[in-house]
Write a structure and sequence with these properties.
Elements: E1 9-17, E2 23-30, E3 33-38, E4 45-49, E5 53-61, E6 66-74, E7 78-83, H1 86-93, E8 102-104, H2 108-119
Length: 123
């Protein structure tokens, strides 16, 4: 059995982890870490201490009306999640991560335009 890193949990919510294939479980936002636990497999969990989190990157659509997913960026890689209420989750995370480190991810057209600009850029 896995021991939680948190002493106090602020938010527990149903979530989907996109690490490999989509897995369903629960996200816990607490005072020590961001944690994900799979519903079906107890050995499938992700625990990210707040000291390891460099930024939170959110996909924002329709001028902030809908946030389909967010990524927790660490020194070791990115972990992509989607919860039942992403805005509520990101508000809970904002208490532990500097708001300047919570950023929007690039839109589809921004990615395409940067790719085209890099193709035609002189070296």
């Amino acid at each position: 059995m896995v021991q939680s890193l948190n002493k106090k949990v602020d938010l527990t919510i149903n979530a989907t982890s996109y690490l490999g294939m989509a897995n369903y479980g629960k996200v816990l936002v607490g005072d020590e870490a961001f944690e994900y636990y799979n519903d079906k497999n107890v050995n499938d969990y992700i625990q990210i201490p707040w000291s390891e989190v460099t930024e939170i990157m959110a996909s924002v659509m329709f001028k902030g009306k809908w946030i389909p997913r967010f990524a927790v960026v660490t020194n070791n890689g990115n972990f992509i999640f989607s919860t039942r209420d992403n805005k509520k989750t990101l508000r809970a995370v904002r208490n532990y991560v500097d708001p300047n480190n919570m950023v929007r991810s690039l839109s589809f057209f921004q990615v395409i335009s940067r790719g085209l600009k890099s193709l035609f850029k002189r070296k």
